[in-house]
């Protein structure tokens, strides 16, 4: 009898670095939440890229430049204000992902 459903292997202490079964369970659950959050974040980044492409197309079509540096500075300041110095790096990555996709 064939079973097409795949079964994930049990998570062990070695997989998590945990030293107790309770910690393995907590870590496994938290990792699942992180995986879910990462999926949502990726979806939001892709949506942001698509919206940015619309803005760039309209700006170029109206005779403007593809990139608005003053707007980018606002975004960098916002991320830095919310997340500190690392927020600036995250904002730069988002801006880079969103440029030139027109």
Automatic annotation (TrEMBL):
Q: SMART domains, per this entry?
A: CM_2 (SM00830)
Key words of the record: Isomerase
| Region annotated Disordered, chain positions | 1-20
Tell me the SUPFAM superfamilies matching this sequence: Chorismate mutase II
Q: Does the record carry Transport as a key word? A: no
Q: Does the keyword Isomerase apply?
A: yes
Q: Name one GO molecular function term.
A: chorismate mutase activity
Question: Which chain positions lie within coiled-coil regions?
Answer: none
Q: Per its UniProt entry, which superkingdom is the organism in?
A: Bacteria
Q: Which Gene3D superfamilies match?
A: Chorismate mutase
Question: Per the UniProt record, which EC number(s) apply here?
Answer: 5.4.99.5
What PROSITE patterns does UniProt report for this protein, alphabetically? CHORISMATE_MUT_2
The segment(s) forming the Chorismate mutase domain are: 21-102
Q: Which InterPro entries match?
A: Chorismate_II_sf, Chorismate_mutase_highGC-bac, CM_dom_sf, CM_II_prokaryot
Please name the NCBIfam families in this protein's record. CM_M_hiGC-arch, PRK07857.1
The protein, known as: Chorismate mutase
- Identify the species of origin: Streptomyces catenulae
């Amino acid at each position: 009898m064939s079973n097409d459903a795949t079964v994930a292997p049990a998570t062990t202490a070695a997989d998590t670095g945990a030293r107790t079964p309770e910690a393995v369970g907590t870590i496994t659950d938290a990792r699942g939440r992180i995986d879910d959050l990462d999926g949502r974040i990726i979806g939001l980044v892709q949506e942001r890229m698509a919206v940015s492409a619309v803005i760039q197309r309209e700006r170029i079509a109206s005779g403007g430049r593809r990139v608005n540096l003053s707007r980018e500075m606002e975004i960098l300041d916002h991320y830095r204000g919310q997340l500190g110095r690392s927020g600036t790096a995250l904002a730069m990555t988002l801006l880079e992902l969103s440029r030139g996709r027109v």
